Structure formats: structure tokens, C-alpha cells
Amino acid sequence: MVWHKKRHWRNVVLSVLTFPIVFGYLIKTTHSSTYSSFHTEVNGYALEYKDAGELSLLTYNVAGLPDFLSSASCSRAKSMKEIAEKINRFDIVNVQEDFHYHRELYGDRNEHRFRTVHKIAVPYGDGLNTLSKYPIRESRRIPWQHCSGSDCLAAKGFSFARIEVAKGISVDVYNVHATAQDDKYATIARKKNLQQLAQYIGTQSVGKAIIVMGDFNAHFEATWDNMGWFAQKTGLEDVWTILQKGGVCPFAHTDFVPKEKLTLTDSCESIDKILFRNSAQLEFFPSVYKVEKQYFTNSNGVPLSDHYAISCILQWRKNSR
Predict the structure, then answer these.
(1) Of 110, 295, 302, 317, which has the most beta carbons under 10 Å away?
(2) 3-class SS at 185?
(3) Which residue in 140, 179, 181 sits closest to 156, CA to CA?
């Protein structure tokens, strides 16, 4: 298992600075995360009756910690404004680490009509938000029951949103940010994270078509992770596995070495994933998977986050059986 030195020292700094961060949160009046966002009113929003359609999806860890803590290499406030505009082309967007610069993400540059209410906590909430061109009929947030290290400083977990994509047709969309790092205690916590999520899906989304997108911090190829178990338990299919691996899940092995996040290509497994599950009423057909290496960069070609965004096109149709 790999221990990334940069992340290690970042975690040390986070732990040491916990008190000043909390104190600063309480006194700083310009803190972006105090910006109150809300669902756009859905009453009266007319959807068409449709038997088939297409969804463009995006999951993106936007590295929303303050500049001095972030491992992203460019200004976070400026980058978040650019991200806010660039994600407009996607129908449903899940973001993670939307912490310190939420005002910039939900500002004037973003055009998504429906957006989840931002969670505010000390020093930070869960960092999870969903932006959609379709009505979000209900949403809720669920904190992890287990965490490890610096991840315990934020109220990390997963969120649930029921989104109506056509008249009478809804999809359960989950946003995930699992425990990071590959040390002993982090991997134990992450396995329990996915067990908790699987249990929730098993009770909340029985018989429902679902989409799960987010930063899993996990790999199918890693024996210390339980991604294979999670997919099997929930009946989810991974878009990357289908389109890049012919539907064959990678074999998990003990000598697996994860690639650095900003060296990924479409053929590499990312910790940022998009999964889906069909229902008796609705079928999905993934047609495009893409690691967004070029689009989410600034004018100098520098990535806007320390992750690449992952996108896909998901065709859907009502099941006629």
C-alpha cells in the first residue's frame, strides 16, 4: 500500500491546526461556507412525459480547503469560480470537498436551477453538494459512523437526492466521499463506510433506479478495499468497468499501486467513480466515459483541482416489459 508523503504532511498540518481553524471559523465574517444556498422552488416546474432520454453526469472533488491547506496548485477561490461555470454543461453534478469556497461555486456563474442546501458545520460540513438541471424532489445527508485521522475533522459521509428526470420518472442519486488514505485504520474505516452506504441503499432505494457518484478513495484492484463487494451487494454497475474493461471487474491483488490522481487516463481506474443500477421501470445504457483532463484546467493549463473530474453519458429508457 502506498503512503503519499505530501498527503501525510497535509494531514499532520490539519491535525495541528484544528483549534486555529475552528477559532478562525467562528470569527471570520467573510467565510464563504456561511453563504446560505437553497433548492430552487420546484412547484410549477413542468417536466415532459418521456419514454427515453439522456443524462450527462459529472463527479468532481473540487479541493475546497483554504489555499494554505489545499494540495491543489492554483488559487482555490478563482478556480472555484471557473469550476462553477464549466460544470454548466452537465445535467447532474456531484461535488465533494465543497468546503471553504461554496459562495464561489454557487455564485452567479453557475446556472443549475436545482441545488442542494449547503451543510454548515464547525469547522466544515460534509463538503457534498448536488447541482441539477432537473428538480430535486427530496434530499438528505448521512454522516459516516466511522472515520480515521484528519477525515474526522469534517462531517464527511454521503448524501441522497431523488431527482425527477421526466414526468413521473425519478432516479435516486447518491453523492459519496469515503475515508481517505491506505493505512490500516483508514482502510478499516473506508470498508465500514461502504458497508453503511450499502445498507442505506438497501432500505432507502428498494426497487429504485439509482446513480452513485463520488470520491470513493477506493479501487476494485486493491485487496484492502471492498469495492467489488459493494457493487455486488448493491447491484450497482461501474461505468468505467463497462466501457473500458468490457464489463469485467479488475482482479484485486495485494501488490496494486494506485496511480497519482493527476496522471490518470480513461483506461486507468480512478477513485472517483460513477455507478448505476437499473430498476424494473427504468434501464440505463452508458455510452461515454471520460477523465476530464483538459476541460477543467485554467488558462495556463493547470488543473483546477487536485482531482480530475469524471464524466459520463447515461442513456435511459422506460422498461416496456
Answers:
(1) 110
(2) helix
(3) 179
